[in-house]
């Protein structure tokens, strides 16, 4: 499996295509996808999520299996969402972030005060974007599952981001990380390049 992205390349790798496909698989039927999260339950030893293959690292979670069970309950109540379309513009801004953190080993959404909106504007788009990031997962399924379980995030912001019905486009960039081995950045927006969404139509 090849995992890689550079700021100059927007064409998705096989891994990034896999994350995008998995993301739309989830959005097409969140309630059904909840059942896949059950596979995580037997892998917990206390709060340690044990890797299911040699390529991944064990991850010490904050909440253990409780966050998994909550995600399952939450997703079972959700209705299908519109599938996302790929955006090269969003993928380029995501790749810019991967390029920086793959060298620095930093984590989070900001680098030297520059966040996802600023990165998108630097690429000629607008700031109306939503970003989610995962670290340490080596499969597309693991990336999406981590965002949905959202361990240690009190407001479950990543899960709510993936469930946001106004999102229409996504761009994804994944690469190596010196601390967590891998990282994956997903930018989503109501528009293809983060420009302002069209105003709502008035009902006559």
From TrEMBL:
This is Allergen V5/Tpx-1 related. Residues 71-182 form the SCP domain. It comes from Sphingopyxis fribergensis. InterPro entries: CAP_dom, CAP_sf. PANTHER family: SCP DOMAIN-CONTAINING PROTEIN (PTHR31157:SF1). Gene3D superfamilies: CAP (3.40.33.10).
